Amino acid sequence: MESTSRNRFRVSTLSCVCASIIVLVVVSTMIFDGDRGPFNFFTDFSVFKLEPSISVSIVELQAKFSTSVRDHPSTNNANTTAVIVRKERAEEKMERGLAQARALIHKAAASHPNMSLLARDHQGLKESVYHNLAVFYQSYMEMEKRFKVYVYSEGDLPMVHNGPCKDIYASEGRFIEEIEHGAKKFRTSDADRAHVYFMPFSVTMMVKFLYRRATANREPLSRFVADYVTVVSAKYPFWNRTHGADHFMLACHDWGPYVSRANPLLYNSSIRVLCNANTSEGFDPRKDVSLPEIKLYGGVVNPKLLHPPTDNSSRPLLGFFAGGLHGPVRPLLLKHWKGRDAHLRVYEYLPKNLDYYTFMLQSKFCLCPSGYEVASPRIVEAIYAECVPVILSSSYVLPFSDVLRWEAFSVQVNTSEIPRLKEVLMSVPEKKYKKLKEGVKAVRGHFTLNHPAKRFDMFHMILHSVWLRRLNLRSR
């Protein structure tokens, strides 16, 4: 199966390269306003440049074209000039639109109270859970108005244009499904007018069809991704024009960061949307996006989580966790708390006569330790259960953290504090706990996968995170 799939893709690669038409383009690089350490897009908004910064004029383009014509006299001068000018005008128009979006977002920051009031009244957004509600709301509106995504058509099922829509990697498949078939407002068939370019391969499906557990060889996955980038960079001008900086991949599988290393530009320049958002393993929050991990048994949310208890219902347990000994954090948690306290219930594996989600719904705090990788589906499950998530992880960039104030709806505990975890949780005043719980309710919609997608839901929040990173790029 491995060799068959590989050969099929190689044949596809060869045919695409041979059939491609070489188009004269001027290489302009998209640079990231980074090199300043971690920052928040909304609290450190000065990085956005408000002026269009296309550095190559139409005259320069035509001069470059003229040189090319002398070298290739068979080239159709008038037609090629028209194509180049059209592309340049499209890029100029797009940059002007982005500059306008940046200016309007800055203006929203200046008129913060009025814009926040509008967002609260018309969209039901709760100001306390955002770094800056006015800025987020204006940015989201600009995204809806302007943002266009081009989805590459290259590649075949089942590893491209397809992904898992059930179980632990559902966020990977559901995004691919929505962008391929549902997001008409954002998807464009005109690649020259796209702000970003999506490479719709699924790492989870690659693992299923290319990886062989007996050999533990992940190289076929890397070759597949490297070949895919080779195809789109040979057939289209966009990858080479920006060194991949306006391209993005999305993966919830743990091996997403690994396969992104197949191409240095994919790893270092492109936007990587990853569940495994671990800064100690190369995740860069200035350009990469943290993808929420969500486990959908049978493709749906457990019915018990659809209607959590009312605010005045009793939650008799202080905290709860049940899970295997994966990674460095959980063994520490189980060592200190497994079976130790009736109010802080910690299990390795839950006995069959007990129900996992019932415990969540009965608990004030839900413990969310990292496993082998930093992300955990328990965070989203806790939000659904309106149980305040307790983040026990190191080097994890939390999803949508450039927009959301996680301290407004979760508790983050250093792993060194695990021995005194009960003391830490007991020290949270009741008034603060109620505010945290209100915050959990307020952000639930941002972590909900709808079909079809709805405004401000998880699909749109992921897209907004990509939009932010595209806003923070400039041509020069």
TrEMBL record:
Gene Ontology molecular-function annotations: glycosyltransferase activity
Signal peptide span: none
Keyword Cell membrane: no
Keyword tags: Glycosyltransferase, Golgi apparatus, Membrane, Signal-anchor, Transferase, Transmembrane, Transmembrane helix
Subcellular location: Golgi apparatus membrane
Chief site of localization: Golgi
The UniProt record lists the keyword Transmembrane: yes
Record domain Exostosin GT47: where: 143-427
Family label: Belongs to the glycosyltransferase 47 family.
Protein name: Exostosin GT47 domain-containing protein
